[in-house]
Amino acid sequence: xxxxxxxxxxxxxxxxxxxxxxxxxxxxxxxxxxxxxxxxxxxxxxxxxxxxxxxxxxxxxxxxxxxxxxxxxxxxxxxxxxxxxxxxxxxxxxxxxxxxxxxxxxxxxxxxxxxxxxxxxxxxxxxxxxxxxxxxxxxxxxxxxxxxxxxxxxxxxxxxxxxxxxxxxxxxxxxxxxxxxxxxxxxxxxxxxxxxxxxxxxxxxxxxxxxxxxxxxxxxxxxxxxxxxxxxxxxxxxxxxxxxxxxxxxxxxxxxxxxxxxxxxxxxxxxxxxxxxxxxxxxxxxxxxxxxxxxxxxxxxxxxxxxxxxxxxxxxxxxxxxxxxxxxxxxxxxxxxxxxxxx
Amino acid sequence: xxxxxxxxxxxxxxxxxxxxxxxxxxxxxxxxxxxxxxxxxxxxxxxxxxxxxxxxxxxxxxxxxxxxxxxxxxxxxxxxxxxxxxxxxxxxxxxxxxxxxxxxxxxxxxxxxxxxxxxxxxxxxxxxxxxxxxxxxxxxxxxxxxxxxxxxxxxxxxxxxxxxxxxxxxxxxxxxxxxxxxxxxxxxxxxxxxxxxxxxxxxxxxxxxxxxxxxxxxxxxxxxxxxxxxxxxxxxxxxxxxxxxxxxxxxxxxxxxxxxxxxxxxxxxxxxxxxxxxxxxxxxxxxxxxxxxxxxxxxxxxxxxxxxxxxxxxxxxxxxxxxxxxxxxxxxxxxxxxxxxxx
Lengths: 343, 343
Prior knowledge:
- The structure is a homodimer.
- The first copy, chain A, has helices at 5-24, 70-86, 107-121, 175-184, 194-202, 208-217, 230-241, 256-265, 269-274, 291-299, and strands at residues 31-33, 39-42, 48-58, 91-101, 127-135, 141-151, 166-170, 222-225, 244-248, 282-286, 306-313, 319-322, 328-330.
- In chain A, α2 (70-86) runs parallel beside α3 and α2 runs parallel beside α6 (208-217).
- The first copy, chain A, has ten helices and 13 strands.
- In chain A, a hairpin with a 5-residue loop joins β12 and β13 (328-330).
- By secondary structure, chain A is α+β, with helices and mostly antiparallel strands.
- The interface between A and B is large, with 76 and 76 residues.
- β3 of chain A pairs antiparallel with β2 of chain B, so a sheet runs across the interface.
């Protein structure tokens, strides 16, 4: 029988987490000390600004404890936060992990969550610097605060898009939602085409190396990660930049797997690319003359494709899709809202 | 009928929170931008280290939505985090607020939570720099990450206590638990003696000014806030410092209200002081020759009493109470454990 939280208690759990971190945690630079005190202390690098983001995942709402392994859940929770730092062009350095737990959760399972988080942090030389555990009422939550750094003057905001800018996106948006549908459906996940989609949902990739490469050029005007979906986050950029946008339907990147899925469910693959999906790709804008420079900057650090998908316009709140035939149709943005009827 | 979260949606709520913060939030220095992007960015002060702490409060577990006002809950959630920064001798600067919410919660109520947080932050010239809102499964949680700063070299850890050090404590520990018992019982809360105790529970004070004054002397060897109770946190100091401790029963600070409560429930007032209680006072140690200097340092910024309550010993894990008659009895530490049977 495996030990539960009720068996080992809060402090027993914290000891086990500390031991795991000492064994597996990358030793980052700049950390003064970690999980011993309630508060972690860090020395920021000279000439850098501090970035801070936090994102909570609630069991049953943002992840399915029954369908994903504990380690996958930990990876996912951390990747989502890394993606927010990536969108600013920063590098993650220290994570604080706050867990809300039921008494009967096995200790081994919690340590697996941590291993998943370290799977994401270690390659980036970032560490878990502290956190806490709390008894939750009903179901688990994982709330991660991730602290990163960016060279002063190199940070990229959402609000800098200019009319006439090209809109670019990394990777293959839309895959995660397709994966989730397959995952929840009766599909044989081992079917060749389904696998990349399910992987896209279960262990999403952040684009932090790509984001840093982009930031270092100084040529990106606005950037965001598309965790609210391609259109949802395009709308965020346009709202903060007081612009509109045109999306070139023909140019949208459709992966082979997504094309297979679209045919299977009888939907437009382009629609799947731009609607809600948890893909954590980066969307960014730049003056047209810099498109090739930015593609090259990413290509130097990553094999992820970068696609030019549209244009920023001077009509605030105007969103259009441009068809292969040149037809210009308004896009109705329903966005993504975790509390609304569609959430 | 008041608007709920389901009515306004996630983005509607975020807009309202931003508006509130713009109107009421202290404008801190060093913040580059706040709640617009998912990630907040800050410029750290030269020559300072960064402190980060996070603490989650779960409805029904750490607060009672039915008995405390939304504003009191917000204050409490923030004060608890400020206290962790205080224990390091730091100053809080930026808070990130992560809320887990049910769909039917009134928007007004959420804004009241924020007002309570600002009640605590504004006097310290600290701000809410960002955060997020998440739909929770069942019941609310408030998870706050608070970032502070401390002059490099001035930070105080738990682990620095030396045998022979005096142990000191601020304020009147034990009041919060007495207040909670009164609060949950059938007591008339307006009874004169009950009021300070109930206040101690509902709107606990942090000791951040006192902590900074202490840190600035450079004479404190170890410090902690006693959120796990007087004995629980004394044990943390001793564990990290590999020491033991003696508590002088006679010297323990017993407030007039706590003495009244102890008599009413037929318990030893000293026992109430040292057992579990959410008081957020500071406990610290120093060489005996510095006791008066440290009392004076606190007295210059605060009217909160500082009491010399015991001694650090060289017997790791040995905890004793010294009676008025000089009798030396071992203290059994049950500690505080949110998951254990007593949690």
